[in-house]
Each structure stands twice: as structure tokens, then as C-alpha cells.
Amino acid sequence: MDRLSKGVERISIRGFGLFKVELSRQLDRKAILELATLWSYPRFVKDTLRTANEDSGRIMVDEMEERGQIASDDISALTEALRVCGARGIARDVEKIYEENMSVTTPAGSQSTAPIATNVNQSSEDDETVVPIDLNCVTIKATDSKENQQSMVDQLKRTSDEGIPIQKLRLDMAFKTIHGNGTIALNSGVMLPFLCTISVLVIWTEEGRVMTEAEFSGLLSYGSESTQLQEFVFQYCDLPSLKTSREVFNKLHERGVKVTWNDTGHCLDTLSGSWTSWKMNTIDWVRGNCKAGVVMHEHWSKETHDLQIKMFEFATKKEIPVRILRLNRCYRSVTPDGSKLILQSGQTLSALSPVKRINIETEDGRKIQEVEFSRLLMYADQSQSIEELRSDYIPFTIFIHRSQRLP
Questions:
Q1: pLDDT at 155
Q2: Rounded Cα gap, residues 386 and 292, in angstroms
Q3: pLDDT score recorded for residue 195
Q4: Which of 16, 75, 231, 379 could disulfide-pair with 258, CB 3.0 to 4.6 Å?
């Protein structure tokens, strides 16, 4: 077999099959068992996974494929479930493995389901730093190497300069800050210049980040200067008070740019400069946001928690279940009658909120007292929706069986 044939053979084995092999190695035992529980696998399947040891990953991949939770053209159910379980790092690695295996050229010259930008001037095929990009959704991740980030930035710059539309650009924990000239600094030190042909810009920060006033104002100014931008999306961060100039708000309003804050379910009213809940009027959007889970952080402002609580109230009114609520060091105590959880900021969460599962993550070294434990049981009992209550300072998980009332 000559060198070319060997090269073709090596490339042709990549695809969904190799992705499944690498996925089976990526999933650790904890993630496998939590996924099996989340998806309500039968007891005998969970027992098999629990005792399979080294084969648990392969068995789990087979189970997921059989149930349609992974497919050659869609792994979103898996990555979403991993994030719900708190395994965001594994979710990002799985997405990367999928992209690497599903965006390669086949021996016949056809391409896989992940489209690659072909309108951008590419370097030679021997240049290993060229990273194929999909202009429908370009994702720059914090875990990407500096060379890969620079490759994507260079292609985006050429694409924008040539007037080619970029449907969506997503910065996955890669946003560091923004400079006054509209240049975005990435976590690696790579500079992303102003791009005039982006339709949607998504900023996913590291979980719990508090965006500074200068950063938020700079990003809004960025959006106001783009003639093509249609939507700005923020996720996993706390946004400061809106003190951006009236001129920026006017430009955003004139161009019809939507500014969405997914953590709270609110959008920016560019006329008044305040947050409005009109985004929550879209039932499908609220249902999707609640299905993915909601996180409340200790460093986030009282105003942010207020907006999140409004989303719970809306979900209650529309009978939309919230799969999981994570209280990240913002839980203080429970009311004596067990009817409400009290947050560090003073706000309360009623037991009527449609939450299926609550994870309480507390400050280091905190221990639960008997009285507080009893009140947590009362809180879970009074809710008509909570099925599981978990905390890192309770040595076990409380499962609520609706067929029985607590004593």
C-alpha cells in the first residue's frame, strides 16, 4: 500500500464510530451513574453499569445510542445532560471530540454533517494551525490552544473583511475583556478584532463570573457599532447596573438588536435601559431554559437573584418544571415552618417553585444542625414538585417519594 493509500485509510476510520470509542473513554464512573439516574435507566441497567468497571463506558455508549440520546448528527441530549449533572468540563471535551471526528473529509472528498467554511482563504494543507470553522456557529473555547484560537480569529477576520456573513460566534469561557477600540481580548491573549458581519454574538463566561460595568458597556458599544448584529446573548454571568450612554441604547434600538440574559430569562429594553421579562413570554424558550437547569451564585447581586426568582414565578404560573436548581454558596437557612429557603442576600424561595431537584453547595466547613435538617425535610415535603434534595454538607441525598408523606 503506498503512502497516499495509507493516508486515506487513516482518515477514513474517523467518524461516528471513532467518536463512540473516544466517548467511552471520556466518561468517568461518576458521570455514567449520574446520567443513568437522570435518564431513569432501569435498575438492572444501572446495576450493570455500577459493576462493569472498565467496560462501563462502552456499555453506556451502547445504551445511549440505542435510546437515541446520541446520534451521528446530534449529541445535544448528552452534552445538555452532562451540564445538568454539573459536568461542564466533560461536556466541553465531548463536544470537542465530536467536532474533531465529525468534521473531517472522507476519502471520496465529501464532507460530514459539520459544514466547514469554504469562502475563507485557507493556508496550505500542510499548515497544522488551520482550524476548519462552520460559519453557522463558530465556537472559540477557553480550552482551545492559543494557536487554534489565532487560526479561527484570522479566518473570521478575513471572512468579515470580505463581507461574508457569520451567523453566530460563541465565546465559550474564552472572553477575557474588551478594549475601547472594540477589540475583544481572549483568555489566551489572542485579540479578536471588531467583526462587522456577525449576526449573533454569544458570551458564555466561566460559571459565576461578575461582569464589570466597563466590560458590559464595552460589549454593548460593540453591538451598537455593528450593522449586522441581531442578538447579543449572555450566559453564566452576573451583569452590572445599566449605566451605558443613551447614545448606545438608541443605536441598539434603531437597529433592533436584542440583548438576552439567559441566566434570568430577561432581555434589555433599549428604550428604557432596563431589563424586561418579555423573553419569558415565549413558553418554548422558558421550557428549554428550565430544562437545562438554573444556577444562583453567592457573588451575584440581589437584583440578579430577583430576576431569577421572577423566572421561577413565571414557570410556576405556566406549570413549567425546572429540572435542577443549584444554589452555589448563596443558601443561608430555612424558615421555621419550612415553607421557604432563605438566601444570603435575604430573598426567599417558596416551596411552590416548580423545581424537581435542588443542589445546595455551601461554604467550606459548614455543618448542618438537627433543627435545620428537619426544616429542609419540611420544605421538601411542602413542595409538590421536589423529588431530590442534595447538599455537600448532608452526608446523603434526600429522595422524596410522593406516594408517602413525611412524618
A1: 94
A2: 16
A3: 93
A4: 231
Beta-ladder partners of 333: 342
Would you tell me how many other CB atoms lie within 10 Å of the CB of residue 83? 18
Contacts of 73 (CB under 8 A, 6+ apart): 113
Place of cell 446520534: 71
CB 50 within 8 A of CB 36: no
Tell me the C-alpha distance between 30 and 141, whole Å: 24
Cell matching residue 363: 461554604
- Residue carrying C-alpha cell 458599544: 221
| Residue 275 backbone dihedrals phi, psi, to 5 degrees | -85, 135
One-letter amino acid for residue 283 of the chain: I
**DSSP, residue by residue, 201-230:** EEEEEEEEEE--HHHHHHHHHHHHH-SS--
Is the pTM for the entire model greater than 0.70?
no
305 within 8 A of 332, measured Cβ to Cβ: no
- DSSP H helices, 27-138, are 29-38, 43-51, 56-66, 76-84, 88-102
Residues 20/27, Cβ–Cβ less than 8 Å: no
Helix, strand or coil, per DSSP, at residue 303: helix
Integer Cα distance of 98 and 113 in angstroms: 11
Q: Helix 16-26 vs helix 56-66: angle between axes, to the nearest 10 degrees?
A: 130
pLDDT along the chain (407 residues), means of 10: 39 71 90 87 76 82 84 86 86 89 51 39 44 83 88 93 92 91 92 93 87 89 87 86 76 88 81 72 70 78 82 81 83 90 87 77 73 85 78 55 44
Per-residue buried b or exposed e for 142-179, using 16+ beta carbons within 10 Å of the residue's own CB:
bebeeebbbbbbbbbeebbeeeeebebbbbbbbbbebe
Query: Would you tell me how many other CB atoms lie within 10 Å of the CB of residue 65?
Result: 15
Grid cell in block for residue 31: 458521570
Cβ contact 389:376 at 8 Å: yes
Please state, in angstroms and rounded to a whole number, the distance separating the CA atoms of residues 35 and 42: 12
Residue-wise pLDDT for 261-279, tens only, equals 877 777 888 888 788 765 5
Residue 398: CB atoms within 10 A of its CB come to 17
- Strand (E) or helix (H) holding 271: none
Q: What is the DSSP letter of 195?
A: -
Q: Tell me which residue of 260, 274, 123 sits closest to 202, measured CA to CA.
A: 260
CA separation for the pair 184, 366 (Å, rounded):
40
